[in-house]
Amino acid sequence: MNTKQITLLHSNDMHGDFLAEHVDDQLTGGVSMLSGYLTKCRNEDPNVIYAIAGDMFRGSVIDSEFLGLSTIQIVNLLAPDVVTLGNHETDYGVAHLLFLEKMATFPIINANLYIKQNETRLFRPCYIMEIDGMKILFIGILTEEVISQTKGEKIIGSFIGIEEAAKEVGKICNAYNALDVDLTVLLTHIGFEEDKKLAAMLDPAWGVDVIIGGHSHTFLAEPAIVNGIPIVQAGTGTDQIGRFDLVIDTDENCIASYQWQAVPINEATCPHDERMEELIGSIKAKTDLKYAKVVANFDYELEHHDRWCQTELGGVFADAMKDSLGVDLFLMGSGSVRKYSMGPIVTFQDFTECYPYDGKSYGLKLTGAQLKKALLHIYRDDAWLGNHTEFYQLSKGMKVIYHRPLHQILKCELNGEKIEDDRIYTVGIQEFHYNNLPEFLNLSYEEVKANGEPLVLTTSDVQTLLAYFEHNKHLGFDLDGRLEVVQ
Predict the structure, then answer these.
(1) What is the rounded (10 degree) CA torsion for 197, 199, 203, 205?
(2) N or C: more exposed end of the chain, with fewer CB within 10 A?
(3) pLDDT score recorded for residue 401
(4) CB under 8 Å to 384, separation ≥6 — which residues?
């Protein structure tokens, strides 16, 4: 048996986490030390590959202020060998993404986005890298959430189901197996649970060896093995990097053995990269003055520790939108709140990193029956099993008791009164969620419009929230039993 070694490093869901932070009196994370670790590995080991499984963008003012241009500059210095798209790569629009791709000095792959008119792919579906006489095949698969984000892109299509994704993987593998591919890697951005479903559907004859995933921000102690395929993720941000040490059987074109670990990025083990620090410093200097302004003052630090439950910070955002827009209820998308905590002093940078998405909000007229139907969809089992679903922060006045084993709503009240099935209620919702009513709330546009045409209540969520915080100082929060889940 002839064997060769490969060191396969991987990141996912960096989300603009470019600056190191002090954690337990130790400097942790940041792209300077990440770059230093990559350089160290490249100097120590002969066959080093670095891959990124999506979502480089969003999460910091360094990214959002320059619409991803700064992120591409930073990632160019990290010099990945291949990158696949995440759902947030489309946040600035598909046309802008194609512009950013031209700036990238690394290949970006994606197997499923295409132009509807002639089914032309937007990106190359896969990438074959040659190293030390070996051929490594990378295939990029994206979550169905990209469909949600690009609903306004009428010419863009995609497959969205795991079954379709598996078939596409099979087609690509069958097309390239004749090229004596030594290692096949799926770079996915569909979430850990979906990765396991996908792995179970893959025909072993296709030769997929490894799945490197993203999207669910999963921290692992060891790979999950499904259908003989190790599945890994590296959490989120730049606090750690995944590392495979692979021994490749070049006769049989498969993995002979491997070790995997999540390597912490900190000053104890990772040198700094002076070039990266210079670049980061020059970008940060341009943003510091603008983003240092104080925009809110909370009574204490508000938390958003889990997006699949009611949180203090999520509740404040929902209340701010409800009060500002004058609706009975505002459903604030939990995923819109991107920080685990904020306050008590909130700068414009804190706010922007916490709420990076600006857009319209709509007012819907829903019957009580439709509202309960939507809540039953939101609280279905997928929400509690870690599968990717949309969850919502309820604004003040709502009280819901949901019985999970029975899949029933035991109580649904607004301002102390029972929600009546035939009564009309005004419900505020963000544009992203309005554009995806059937998938997110199980409501068709036809049944909603039967109660009255939806209205745009604000063209800028950000301006609405900032104005509210400016005029409402020293905000505290009490969850006051808005959602109770009976287990």
Answers:
(1) 180
(2) C
(3) 97
(4) 308, 404, 485
pLDDT of 158 reads 62
Q: Is 202 helix (H, G, I), strand (E, B) or coil?
A: coil
Helix (H) or strand (E) holding 375: helix 368-378
Helix (H, G, I), strand (E, B) or coil at 245: strand
DSSP tally for the chain: helices H, then strands E: 15, 30
Residue 355: how many CA atoms within 13 Å on its side-chain side? 24
pTM: 0.74
The single-letter code of the amino acid at 210 is V
Q: Note the pLDDT of residue 469.
A: 95
Q: Count CB-CB contacts under 10 A for residue 269.
A: 12
Give the pair of three-digit tokens for residue 73.
């500059």
Say if residues 257 and 210 touch (Cβ distance below 8 Å).
Answer: no
**Architecture in CATH of 3-285:** 4-Layer Sandwich (3.60)
Question: pLDDT by residue (tens digit) across 434-455?
Answer: 999 999 999 999 999 999 999 9
203: Cβ contacts below 8 Å, ≥ 6 apart:
170
302-306 — which CB contacts under 8 Å span 24+ positions?
302/341, 302/342, 302/343, 302/475, 302/477, 303/340, 303/341, 304/334, 304/337, 304/339, 304/340, 304/341, 304/342, 305/340, 305/341
List the one residue out of 339, 330, 315, 312 whose CA is nearest residue 434: 330
Question: Are residues 141 and 111 in contact, defined by beta-carbon separation less than 8 angstroms?
Answer: yes
- The size of the chain, in residues, is 487
Place of tokens 């341009």: 286
Report the C-alpha gap between 197 and 190 in whole angstroms. Answer: 10
Q: Which residues of the chain have pLDDT under 50?
A: none
Indicate the CATH number of 294-486 among 3.90.780.10, 3.30.70.100, 2.60.120.260, 3.40.525.10. Answer: 3.90.780.10
Identify residue 418 by its one-letter amino acid code: K
| Every domain of the chain and the residues it spans | 3-285, 294-486
